Amino acid sequence: MSDTHPFYDMHTHGFVRVATSTPCVRTADVTFNREGILDEAKRAHDAHVDLLLYPELSLSSYALDDLVMQEALLEAVEHEIETIRKASAELTPVLVIGAPLRRNGRIYNCAVVIAHGEVLGAVPKSYLPNYREFYEKRWFAHGRDCRDLWIAIDGAEVPFGVDLLFAAQDLPGFTFGIEICEDFWAPTQPGTLAALAGATIVLNLSASNIVIGKSEERHLLCRASSARSVCAYAYSASGHGESTTDLAWDGQGMIYELGDLLVESVRFDLQPELCITDIDTRRILDDRMRMGTFNDCAEAEGRPEDSFRTVAFDHAPAPGDIGLIRPIRRFPFVPDRQHRLDEDCYEAFNIQVDALMRRFQSTHAKSMVMGISGGLDSTHALVVAAKACDRLGLPRTTIRGYTMPGFGTSDGTKDNAWKLMRALGITAEEIDIRPAAELMLKDMGHPYANGEPVYDVTFENVQAGLRTDYLFRLAGHHGGFVIGTGDLSELALGWCTYGVGDQMSHYAVNAGVPKTLIQYLIRWATRTDQFDPQTDEVLEAILSTEISPELVPAGEDEKIQSTESVIGPYELNDFFLHHVVRYGQKPSHVAFLAWHAWRDRNAGLWPHAFPEGKKNEYDLARITGWLDKFLARFFGFSQFKRSAIPNGPKVSAGGALSPRGDWRAPSDAVADLWKAELKANVPET
User: Fold this and answer.
1) Is 558 a catalytic residue?
2) Which of 24, 125, 179, 650 is flagged as catalytic?
C-alpha cells in the first residue's frame, strides 16, 4: 500500500484545509505586523493549509482611531502588501489579510487576497458600525456599492469590490467569498450573496472586541450563517496586541460547516495561534443540490452568480497523504452534543412515542400487538409502546406481546423476552411456531421436512412469515394493530422478509431509527432511569446479546446465527447509509471518511459512556469490502422492499427511507455504477 495513491490525498475528495490566524500585532507598527503575518503564513505552509484567514485590519492593526488617516501609515500598508506578495510566491496558502486602502479620496476597510506571488483582489467592508464603542464612519467609506471596480495597491491595479469570488482552477469546489466583521451582524449579509453566487467558503475578517457573552453571540451568528447559506464559515477576530485604550480583545477563531462547529481557537491566548480544519466542499455542494430553497433564493436575489466576478487562480495544493484534520462522527445518527445529550436522546425517543400515540388514537384500536424476540429492535419498539401507553393514560396491558420461538430461538433471548414483558407489565403470551412451520415446510416439499439440515432462505422466511401472519390475525382478533419492529438499517440493507414478514406491519415505529441509534437509546434509557431497575437489568442483558435473526439452529459449536457476519457491522453500515442517503457522496469519498473515522480506536471522540469493549477499528480493506456489499444491497436489490413500507416517523436529520419522504428510487436499478466507482478509486489492499 502506498500513500501516493490519489485516494489518500484529501484534495482528491474535495477537501480544502482552512485556518484562521491570530498573529502577533502591535498598534500602528506595520512592519512588525507584516512579520507576524508572514510568520503565521510559514507555519500554515508547513501544515499544508490551503486558505489562511487573518483578522480585520491585521496589517495596520485595528484600534488606530484617527491614525488610520495618516498618509505615512497608509503608504506603509501598501508597501508591506507588496512585501507579503513577493513572499507568498514560496507559500502554499492563499492569504486573506486586513488592510486600509485608498481609492478616489476615500479609505476603505478591506480584505486583501494574496496567493502565489500575486494580489488577487480586495473586498471592502459593506457595513460600518457607528454606534456604542464604534466610530468607523469617521474614517472609512462603506463598500456596499463598489462593484466592477479596480484599485491601485502600490502602483498595481487589482480587482476591487463586494462582487468578488476567488476560485482555485485546479481544485473544484475551492471557491470563497468575503465579508468583514459588522457585515455578518447586518440583517442581510454580503456573505450570503457570495454563497448564492457560488462560494462554498465564506470568510469573515473581524476586529470584534470582547465583552461578556459576545463569544456566544459570534458562535450563534457563525453557525446560523453556515447553516442558512449552506457553506463553510470561517471567522477570525483580533487578539492580544491591539490597543486596550477602551476595549479588550480575545482573538477568537472558529470554523463552521453546514451548522457544525469543526474547530475553534483558544481565546485570550498570548501566542499566535492557527486554528486548522479541513472543509468538505463536496458535502456543501451536494447539500445545495438537495435543497431547492437555496437555489430558489439565488433566483429570487437576481442570480448573483451572473453579476459576481470570479478571480481564478492556480493553487497547486500539497500533494499526497497529509492526513485529515476534521472531526468525523463514527456514529452519525447518534447524538454527540455532550452538553445537550439528554435533551437530544429525549427528543429522539419521544418522536417515536408521540407518533405512536397519534396513530393509536386515530385508529381507535383496543390494543397494540407486537412480536417480542428478546432482540434489540422489538425491545426498543416495546419500550416506546410502553411510554406511549403511560402518556395516554392507558394500562400497559393494552400492549399484547407475543414471543414466538422457532427453530433457532435460543433460551437466552426467549428468557429475556419474557423478563422484559413481565417487567413492563404488558399482556404476554407465547406461541410456538415450530409445528406450523414444520407443516408448511412439509406441504412445500422442503428437504428439512425429510430430516435434511437445509437452512436456506425458504427455511428462514417460513418462520419470519408465520410470525407476522400470526401477529396480523391476532391484531384482528383483539381489535388492535401490529407495531412493526424493523429498523432503518435493516431497510437499507434489505435485511427483512417482504410482505408477510418483518418488512410489513400496521405502523413501523422503528422505520426511521438505525440500529446504532436504537442501541444508544436503550443504553441511554438505562443510564437515565427511564424505567425501573428490573427493566434496566433486562435491557442491559439484551444490549450485550449477539445480533441474530435466530432462524437457523445453533451448530455443534453452539454458535448462533450472526447477522453482522453476513451483512457487515451495523456501525459501518450506518456510517455508509448516512453519507450515501444524506449527501449522495461517492463510494470512494465515503470510504475515505470511514477510513479516517474507524482506522484507530484510540483516535477521535466516541459517544458519551460508550462501552470500552465495544470500541472497534477497521482497516481500509475491511471498510472497502463491507462498503462494496452495502452498495450491492442498498442500490441493487432492496428498493422494492422500501417502496412498500408502512407508515413510520422520521427521527433523524440523516434521513429515512420512506418513498413518501426522504428517499425515492426505482426498484429496478442496479448497483454496478457505485461498485465500479469504489473499485476504480480505492486502492486494493
Assistant:
1) no
2) 125
C-alpha radius of gyration, the chain, whole number: 30
319: DSSP letter:
P
The two beta strands, 94-103 and 367-371, are unpaired
pLDDT < 70 regions, the chain: 1-3, 555-558
Q: Name the residue with cell 427521527.
A: 651
For the segment 501-541, what is each residue's pLDDT rounded down to a tens digit?
Answer: 889 999 999 999 999 999 989 988 888 888 899 999 999 99
Whether 249 and 240 have beta carbons less than 8 Å apart is answered as yes
DSSP class of 159: E
Bridge pairing between strands 260-264 and 253-257 = antiparallel
Residue in the block written with cell 469504489: 678
167 CB-near residues (< 8 Å, 6+ apart): 174, 175, 176, 198, 310, 311, 312, 313
Question: What distance in Å separates the CA atoms of residue 508 and residue 510, rounded to the nearest whole number?
Answer: 6
Give me the amino acid identity at 547: I
Q: What is the pLDDT of residue 558?
A: 60
> Which residue matches cell numbers 498595481?
156
Question: Do strands 399-403 and 427-430 pair parallel, antiparallel, or not at all (unpaired)?
Answer: parallel
Output the nine-digit C-alpha cell for 202. Answer: 465564506
Residues 384, 356: contact at Cβ < 8 Å?
Answer: yes
pLDDT score, position 3: 64
CA–CA distances in Å: residue 624 to residues 206, 344, 589, 620:
43, 32, 11, 6
Residue 469, all three cell numbers: 401472519
The set of residues, in sequence order, having a beta carbon less than 8 Å from that of 112 and lying 6+ positions away, is 59, 81, 96, 97, 98, 99, 101, 119, 121, 122, 153
Catalytic residue among 24, 110, 146, 181: 181
Q: At what angle do helices 620-631 and 672-681 cross, to 10 degrees?
A: 160
Overall pTM surpassing 0.70 (yes/no): yes
Other C-beta atoms within 10 Å of 180: how many?
29
Instruction: With H, G, I as helix, E, B as strand and everything else as coil, classify residue 439.
Output: helix
Instruction: Please provide the DSSP assignment of 530-570 as one string.
Output: SS-HHHHHHHHHHHTSPP----S---TT-PPP-SHHHH--H
* Inter-axis angle of helices 620-631 and 587-598, nearest 10: 140
At which residue does the C-alpha cell 423476552 appear? 417
Per-position b or e across 561-576, b if 16+ CB within 10 A of its CB: bebbeebbbbbbbbbb
Q: Cell 459576545 identifies what position?
A: 214
Q: How far apart are the first and last CA of the chain?
A: 6
Nearest residue to 486 (alpha-carbon basis) of 383, 378, 643: 378
Active site residue 181: yes
Cell of 249: 480583545
Look up 56 and say whether it is catalytic. yes
What DSSP letter does each residue of 208-265 carry, written as one string? ----TTHHHHHHHHHHHHHHHTTSEEEEEE--BTB--SS------EEEEETTEEEEEP
Cell numbers 469573515 correspond to 204
Written as one letter, the residue type at 603 is A
Options 40, 56, 136, 179, the catalytic residue: 56
For the beta carbon of residue 89, count every other beta carbon within 10 angstroms: 11
Report helix, strand or coil for 132. Answer: coil
3-state secondary structure (DSSP) of residue 311:
strand
Joined grid coordinates for residue 305: 452568480
State the Cα–Cα distance between residues 524 and 296, nearest whole angstrom: 41
Sign of the Cα pseudo-torsion (494, 499, 501, 505, in order)? positive
Closest CA to 372 of 361, 363, 384: 384
